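Homework help thread (please don't just give me the answer)

Our assignment gives two proteins as sequence + structure token strings and asks us to describe the second one. The first is just a warm-up. Here they are:
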Amino acid sequence: MPELKEQFQSADWKTEKHVPVIEAPGAVASGEFLTVKVTIGKEVAHPNTTGHHIRWIDVYFLPEGAKHPYQIGRAEFTAHGESAEGPDKGSVSTQHEASLSFKTGTSGTILAASYCNIHGIWQSSAPLAVR
């Protein structure tokens, strides 16, 4: 039976439009708030149409030595040009990016996942050092 962990895909975000791009400082002072920005399609644009779009982005933090990550937040994108007049006839579309802030006293890894309605779940990670 397939497992969820087998469904996560990853690649280089510079060539693959589905990979979450994490922008965050590489190091922060203990207890200092940091802002994490996650975008999809930074180098290669991802469509945002009724038929092909990013539905959500999740952001987690896994402290060094911890068994489980903390969920920092989730952004859901629900406007993709839908309209009563038909697909892609609407004038409202969301941009697939999220900015979240958090603080920690421990070094670890920022994790991001995104979901494309056509191509599934994608992931990436970035280290965070706490001084």
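The one we have to describe:
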Amino acid sequence: MASQQSERRNRKAEVIRCFAELVAERGYDNVSLRDVAEQLDMSKGTILHHFRSKDRLLERVHADYMERRLAEAHALLERLESAPEQLAGLIYQLMRAEHDDRSATVAFAREIMRFASEEVMADVRRMRDEYSELLRGVVQRGMDDGQFVQADAAIVTLQIFGMCNWSWTWYRPKGAWSTEEIAGTFTHVILHGLGRDAPLELSAEVVETVRVTMAEHRPPPIATR
């Protein structure tokens, strides 16, 4: 029984991973459940048994993605103390996901608006709001503590998301810039703009904390059949 449950979990994980890769590469409209079935050498009926429909499979990709990012973000905020460190950590986390969790990140970023108001995405919207509130809270605490200049924390939060979440359109894992270089530049520009006593760099401590935290929340590898 335990082995059967493990096999079912592995099959579902395989489907989610494969669908995310295909959506990241082609876009949602250009991927069918038959494509996934052929890639994994399984029947379309097996996929429908697990997920019921294509939009619910996309919801699972998005939900799994947000669950990972939220778990990492909560852990980072516990491990990094000051608002500038926390803000640098979240910026680096978002960029690091472009490298370490690329297919799910690109699938999430390019298709998140497709069902933004649909009921099937209710849990995903809730998690997006929770993550947004975490980031906005860091920005607001920095302003309240006098480490950041006063501004509208909600607009600064949207600025950071726009800067990081659309980088999938030009970032390449084997491109000219590493995630550390990109996140370092982003951090410098944001913290310089927020000013006051904020350090103007992505420190080695923040980089290592983010790497360790994200490694701890990485899904286990899928067992080969």
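TA reply:
I won't write it for you, but here's a hint about the kind of observation we're looking for: DSSP finds ten helices and no strands in the chain.
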